[in-house]
Amino acid sequence: MTIMDKTADIPAPRAGGPDDSPLLEVRDLHVEFHTRDGVAKAVNGVNYSVDSGETLAVLGESGSGKSVTAQAIMGILDMPPGKIPQGQILYRGQDMLTM
């Protein structure tokens, strides 16, 4: 009986960026909406990172902030009334919120 090494068929992970940082990194992201009735805190401290070649699934109940988080990351959050008072969204190490 011959045992074959199958690890040779698995591709090596790709580096995230030029300095091996993650492709996308979200750090302590907070999103809030200012309304006539006050401030609604929609996202409170989201953190995650995604390397090149990885897939991230975000799951949660209706109203838990999944879409608002995605809109903030893509830069399509309506501001105002939305506001990102805290956090970083890093793409290849560059903070997209300061671009």
Quick structural overview:
With 99 residues, this protein is mostly beta strands. Helices cover 9% and strands 37% of the residues.
Based on the model shown, name its key terms.
99 residues, mainly beta, 4-stranded antiparallel beta sheet, 4 strands, 9% helix, 37% strand
Q: Describe it for me?
A:
By secondary structure, this protein is mainly β. Helices cover 9% and strands 37% of the residues. The chain contains 1 helix and 4 strands. It has one helix at 66-74, and strands at 24-35, 38-50, 82-91, 94-95. A 4-stranded antiparallel sheet has the order 2-1-3-4, covered by helices on one side. The chain starts with 23 loop residues before the first strand and ends with a strand. The model has no long low-confidence stretch (mean pLDDT 86).
Name the helix and strand elements from N-terminus to C-terminus, one letter apiece: EEHEE
Detail the poorly predicted runs.
none
Q: What's the pLDDT, averaged over the residues? A: 86
Oligomer: single chain
Q: What fraction strand?
A: 35-45%
The end-to-end span amounts to: 60 Å
- What is the strand arrangement across the widest sheet? 2-1-3-4
Query: If helices are DSSP runs of H or I spanning 4 or more residues, what is the number of helices?
Result: 1
Number of strands: 4
Helix content: under 10%
Task: Summarize the main sheet.
Answer: 4 strands, antiparallel
Overall morphology: globular
Class from secondary-structure proportions: mainly beta
Q: What would you report as the Rg, rounded to the nearest angstrom?
A: 18 Å
